[in-house]
Amino acid sequence: MSQRSVSSAPGSAAQDTLRERRDFARSFDSLEQIFAMVRLVLDTRGVSEADAYAIAMAIEELFTNMVKYNARGLGRIGLEIECTGEDVICSLTDPDSERFDINAMPDANVHLPVEQRRPGGLGIHLIRRMVDSIDYDYTGRRSRITFRKTLNRAWAEPAGGDQGRSDKPPSAGQLPEESTGDDTMFEIGKGPDGTIVFSGRLDAAQCSKAEAFIDAAGAVQAFDFAGLEYISSAGLGVLLRTHKRLVASGGRLRLINVNSHIYDIFRFSGFDQVFDVQRAGS
User: Fold this and answer.
1) Same domain for 126 and 191?
2) Considering the domain boundaries, does residue 127 fall inside one?
3) Under 8 Å CB-to-CB from 88, ≥6 apart: which residues?
4) Cα–Cα distance, 100 to 127 (Å, whole number)
5) Residues 154-192: tens digit of each pLDDT
6) Partners of 227 in the beta sheet?
7) How many CB atoms lie within 10 A of CB 221?
8) What is the CA radius of gyration of the chain?
9) What's the total number of domains in the chain?
10) Which residues of the chain are under the pLDDT cut of 50?
């Protein structure tokens, strides 16, 4: 199901509003189509790379929580994205769920020593640092989470210096009804120098592929992120589990060529103090 509302009346108050709504199967396999929808909408609006990263990650974290903790819920999960002149407002609706108010959840303790760190629990912590407000509504068995991201505003705990914004011009034409979402696939392989090379997007749907390759590669301690555009809390869990195995044998995970957006995710989660991180261009 897809619904679109694009205002175009000259001089109208709603002229700058773009709205897109679609429903997705309750599965991590839906992430490819979700990211394709997000990319199309935000590129059409000309949203910067930094803002687009924050919006995409917040959507993934919320969607994957709905799938992970309510896999037996009935119905498809709805996603609505509304772009105004200054804000992007996103809502995710689960039509059949128990009440779970994410605003009542505490922040993760990102200062624990590595042996006490556990995968999971970081998603909400990260969302709070990347968006400007989060609202929760529960009516009947319907859960609806809405967040607002003000465009061109720094994340709550920005890294120093340039965050790598690169404003894109709006794309011409209408948004297609559906997309295969195959433009930012995840790939992993061995580099000529013995590193493990990542590219694309390490989201929840790709973690099993990443872990299988890492496990088969043995005690490789250097991951090259030059081609990695995106990582979510699920991807952080893969890195943490790998790092703990290396530490147990006297090693330490080294991440090289990390872009500014991913580096900020490490900062917000405290993982910049866990891994040996080399930023791109340094």
Assistant:
1) no
2) yes
3) 42, 45, 47, 51, 55, 81, 82, 148, 149, 151
4) 16
5) 766 533 333 333 333 333 333 334 433 444 589 999 998
6) 199
7) 16
8) 19
9) 2
10) 6-15, 158-183
